[in-house]
Amino acid sequence: MAPTSDTDSASDTYDVIVIGAGPVGENVADYAIRGSDRTAVLIEHELVGGECSYWACMPSKALLGPGAALAAARGLPGARERVGDEHPDRDAVFGWRDAMTHRRDDGSQVDWARGAGLDVVRGHGRISAERTVTVGDRTLHAREAVVIATGSTASIPPIPGLREAFPWTSRDATNIAEVPDRVVVLGGGVVACEAATWLADLGVREITMLVRGDRLLPKTEPFAGELIADGLRSAGVDIRFGTTIGSVDRPDAADTGYGRIHGGTATIGLVTADGEPAGELVVDEVLVAAGRAPASTDVGLDVVGLEARGPVEVDDSLTVPGHPWLYAVGDVNGRVALTHMGKYQARVAGDVIAARAEGKDLSGSRFRATSDHGAVPQVVFTRPELAAVGRTEEEARADGVDVEVVAADIAVAGSAVLREDYRGRAQLIIDRARDVIVGATFVGSGVEELVHSATVAVVGEVPLEKLWHAVPSYPTVSEIWLRLLEQRRV
Ligand SMILES: Cc1cc2nc3c(=O)[nH]c(=O)nc-3n(C[C@H](O)[C@H](O)[C@H](O)COP(=O)(O)OP(=O)(O)OC[C@H]3O[C@@H](n4cnc5c(N)ncnc54)[C@H](O)[C@@H]3O)c2cc1C
Ligand SMILES: NC(=O)c1ccc[n+]([C@@H]2O[C@H](COP(=O)([O-])OP(=O)(O)OC[C@H]3O[C@@H](n4cnc5c(N)ncnc54)[C@H](O)[C@@H]3O)[C@@H](O)[C@H]2O)c1
Q: Which residues are listed for NAD(+) binding in this entry (predicted)?
């Protein structure tokens, strides 16, 4: 539902002003005032709940769930015989997605904000002076803090004809309403891999992924990208490495709305990573999944002498250096573009704002977002799933860690009971000198619930000698821990 009016208090002075009411903005405001008589306002120019709730995490996971459930059932004798159609029911999947996104009605999120004691102001917020933010004809003043939590937007590379072709971005893919027959996906990152998975589920006949590098998910362990490429190929996806788009020609392009096919067919001129011609493709839709840019260009950063583009630089207390009243949290600071990490930063920033307001000492670890460095967990909801935390082998070596790698196939009793066709692999990156795990990667079905055990081990710096006594239950996929630790038994 489109936001229509400003709401709440007519007061122009708050303790805390937050620009951007995505998951991160909501949390920082809540933490900054919780249990106090401080006041805070959320400024939002679109929907309270942000990208995650309506355009990103929630709809994408809703679209992926039914296909994953069918695949799990197909892997288990007794259930397999009851699975009819290969694909999920399209309309029912769309209905489930729409239920998860509340059909873009942010009423419940606004209610939550008000219940938490936050004011909500609709409109575009811009810093207009130190501790001052303008929204429409209102000028708001902050006694304690201004927080930029404006998120990020999809990047569209400057390829001739691409922008004019009205390509789909992740917003269209997650809010898909019409299913194109042939789709080209530009990119090999997380959005590209997840979207190719649900497009295949929804019955897109030809999916071609163009990946300019030589592997998928280049920020993760190479074996993970290989297993996910195998999974996508078995779903019928054509992955072309070392290939990208050189030009797009779509004479009948039209902005028909989110998730609708944006006009007639497009002819894609393919080029190699070196720019050499590599043939043509004719498709019904183009999905650009080529990363995101911080939404920092139109929030008035230049007014306070900061660069008005790119990530807003912050220290580990999420404070902008030299501006002790100004904070940047979530995607906009370029540290980690994940909802759970943005919300973690929000808890840290909220606590910092509260402590500063109360004149408290800021030396405790809760006032620093230390997990942003080397302890970031992420789940990629492909088939198989990928779940990882901490550093890859390459990153650990680059950091000078005395690396030991242990790896094993996830083919222990627990996984065999879960699915007849279980396939997966796990790997730990060990700091030999300190006898602790600094990274872990799991690929397989059900691993999304396994990664937190590794996160606890990494953040807690639990010695491997002690981990040996953490006994995994039988029969569960967690038994992979035993197989991995056995390799280190002396
Ligand atoms: C397709 C897709 C799937 C994803 N899936 C996952 C996932 O499964 N798990 C995960 O952890 N992460 C996922 N992410 C990443 C996740 O969506 C982001 O990390 C998260 O949304 C960042 O939260 P945020 O609050 O920083 O920004 P946003 O969610 O982008 O919120 C920022 C808000 O600020 C508002 N705003 C911007 N500028 C202004 C302004 N000047 N004035 C007023 N309001 C403004 C915007 O309208 C928006 O509501 C996914 C991303 C994509 C694209
Ligand atoms: N499950 C999850 O946690 C989840 C799901 C989706 C997105 N996200 C997050 O959202 C963010 C955005 O995801 P994303 O996949 O858009 O970004 P990404 O950075 O993961 O991947 C971008 C891809 O686009 C390619 N690319 C960039 N510019 C290109 C160009 N000019 N030509 C050809 N290829 C180009 C890159 O090589 C890379 O393969 C990420 O931080 C991601 O972690 C998380």
A: 187-194, 291
Give bridge partners of residue 211 from the DSSP assignment. 241
pTM above 0.80, yes or no: yes
CATH number of 163-290: 3.50.50.60
Ligand nearest to the CA of 217: 2
Q: Is the CB of 134 under 6 A from ligand 2?
A: no
> Which region, left, alpha or beta, applies to residue 365 given φ > 0 means left and ψ of -120 to 50 means alpha?
alpha
- Domain 13-49+106-153+293-371, what fold? FAD/NAD(P)-binding domain (3.50.50)
ipTM of the complex: 0.98
CA–CA dist 6, 9 (Å, integer): 9
Instruction: Give the type of residue at 445.
Output: S
Pocket (CB within 6 angstroms of ligand 1): 19-25, 43-47, 50-52, 56-57, 60-61, 124-125, 149-152, 170, 174, 191, 295, 299, 330-331, 337-340, 342
Q: Residue 321 burial by CB count (10 A; 0-12/13-18/19+): exposed, middle or buried? A: exposed
Ligand nearest to the CA of 385: 2
Cis geometry, peptide bond prior to residue 475 (ω within 30 degrees of 0): yes
* pLDDT tens string 98-139: 999 999 999 999 999 999 999 999 999 999 999 999 999 999
